[in-house]
Amino acid sequence: MKTAHRIASRQKRAGMANPAQLPKFWRPKITPAQQLDCKVIHWDLIDRFTAGTATRADLWDWMETGFTYSQLMRLLASDGTEFTPEAMNAVAEQLASYEAVATRFAIHGRAGFTAIELLTARAAAQVFDSLIELDRHSFAEQAARWSADQMARITLKALAA
Asked: What is residue 154's predicted lDDT score, i.e. its pLDDT?
């Protein structure tokens, strides 16, 4: 423990502090260009699903994106942001659809939505657009790290099965 503390102290003195360790009010926000990229990504994934061109990688990206935004929503809520029941339901319904979409992909080798899943994905994407604009205190980055960890765990479980 002392060694980790010494390393962190040296990094801090050298100006290399980890943004996640900074007090939340000093953490960087994502830039407007990064916000736009985030918005384009989830809408592009939905377009790929509806066009029938979504690949396995797109399926995993779509799931990871949903995990990221659901975690961002949790972090914002824990910091005092209030959400409408509709917004919370849209994100929850998207997360609930992952198993059915992944199962269909496993059976048919094609990623796609049913009509209900498409409506759910679009509603969730609209919520995601709002969430990314609400980001503060580097919550989006924290959510992305959490999501990447979750996807790594799912991948390990899938490989073990």
From this structure: 85
Angle between helices 139-160 and 56-78 (to 10 degrees): 140
Query: Residue 64 and residue 46: Cα distance in Å, rounded?
Result: 13
Is 124 in contact with 66 (CB distance < 8 Å)? Answer: yes
Of 53, 9, 40, nearest in space to 125 by CA:
40
Rounded Cα distance, 124 and 130, in Å = 10
**Residue 34: how many CB atoms within 10 A of its CB?**
14
Q: What is the token pair recorded at 154?
A: 């799912």
Q: For residue 142, which amino acid is it?
A: Q
pLDDT, one tens digit per residue, over 36-57 is: 888 899 899 999 999 999 999 9
Q: According to DSSP H, which parts of 30-114 are helical?
A: 32-51, 56-78, 85-108
Distance CA 139, CA 132 (A): 9
Residues 6+ apart with CB under 8 A from 116: none
